[in-house]
Design goal:
about 140 residues; alpha/beta; globular; single chain
């Protein structure tokens, strides 16, 4: 079959979609919104949602195709990077139609990979504010 698998496992049941919306972690980006949750299965699974706001059937199918192709490559990279498995739901946005699969893949690598592998930067505990003593005084 080669280096890349041609097919990935798909989430189809409404019950699983609702569960991921409710219990999953949300990761928004400019091209899509991703909900994910760790899974005990052998492979990663993916579900793609496109609403009618995106456009007609042709544009909705294009946005699904773009996300599906990007996830196919991202799935193989994720399998090599970590032993954990996840369920994903990608919700397409209006911007998805104009993007290419390489741009979506880049977003997945930048936004999702650090979250899934545990290599993201730690946020400061103080909420990004400086302590009171560090503030400049007006004279």
């Amino acid at each position: 079959m080669g280096e890349f698998s041609k097919r990935f496992y798909v989430i189809k049941k409404d019950r699983e979609f609702r569960y991921l919306y409710k219990k999953g972690v949300c990761c928004p980006s400019y091209g899509f919104v991703c909900y994910y949750r760790p899974s005990n299965r052998r492979r990663n699974r993916c579900g793609i949602v496109t609403g009618k706001k995106i456009g007609n059937a042709v544009t909705r199918n294009r946005s699904r195709r773009v996300i599906r192709e990007a996830f196919r490559i991202f799935d193989n990279e994720l399998l090599k990077a970590t032993d954990k498995r996840f369920d994903f739901i990608f919700v397409a946005r209006e911007k998805t139609v104009t993007l290419k699969s390489t741009q979506i893949l880049g977003t997945m690598r930048v936004k999702l990979m650090p979250l899934l592998t545990g290599t993201q930067d730690k946020k400061p505990e103080s909420g990004g504010r400086r302590p009171a003593g560090d503030r400049k005084q007006k004279e």
